[in-house]
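Can you make up a protein sequence with its backbone structure tokens?

===
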Amino acid sequence: MSVTNADNQELRLKKKVGKYYVASQPYLEDGFCPIRNLLASALDKWSMLCLFNLGYYKVLRFNELKKNVTGISARMLSVTMKKLEEQEIVVRKVYAEVPPRVEYSLTPFGQELSEKLVDLGNWYLELYTQKED
């Protein structure tokens, strides 16, 4: 009996999931999933748009970011950026000027996360456009 490509993919996925659960077992026993908070922070509606903008422009001031993320309120942008800063995805730099100037940029971790989110988005778009053909 020969092993098919689908069988190999299934085995590869099974190994990856098993490896993840072994590595994260101490956290799971404490009721903490290592990836849950990160994904909850990065994959919400506003966070992804902020990450994509910072990935493209590198550094943005608060109002520039607000202008680029259509439909977000100043309060929601502030909450979103604080959440991303707490997750160490974004760096907030405050300049002692009048009026105060605040700039946001991605941390190295945030850059890598943004790349992976873009890859995920591209993968989905490829599947979606193949469906339409």
The chain has a mean pLDDT of 88. Residues 1-34 form one domain.
